Amino acid sequence: AWLPEDRVAAEKNGTGGGGGSAAPTPAPPTRRKIDRVRLVSLLVGLAILAGSGLYLRWDALREWSYSRQSLAQLKTEAARPNADPLLRLVYAEKLIAAGRSPETIPVLGDAVNTLPTNPSGPIPQRIYSRFGHALALGGFTEDAKQFLDLARRLDSNDARIYRGYALIFLSLKNTQNALKQIEIANTLEPENPEGWYLQGKAYNELQK
Length: 208
Prior knowledge:
Layout: H1 4-13, H2 31-67, H3 71-78, H4 85-97, H5 104-113, H6 122-137, H7 141-154, H8 159-171, H9 175-188, H10 193-206
């Protein structure tokens, strides 16, 4: 009887049932070929990682680019009908830094109007927060609360929101609630002088 062991031995000796020599065993891949495959895989992985990083940093790169422009340049660009909301946000923040907060209301209003429906993420949050705060400074309490609430839903750790609420309460002569909001703001951002200014203002109101 032809046993499996005999078959293996016959194939090794070239005397298998087919009458011819057995097919040669494929040679293992060379080390150079393996290294090439690994190199290609590494390059593909690096390209994917680089692409992901660029995508994640795209907003930061745009913001940096806008921040390099002057107020005059930003004003011109922000006046365009379909201007980038981020550009308008940068323009508004530069106006705030220049002590021109009242001028941010129309700029941020335009930024809000060009946001997509139900936006999310840090850029819409910052636009809502700054718009609500600017409206509160201007005495537009109902509109201010609306946008501060929207900002808080996106990020409840933004101290500017609570300073905005404090401004609203102070304008309504509700000093106790203003102090509660100021306390939250100063806990979140103790280095911001506006919070301490509002706290002093609130305590002065209590003493009247």
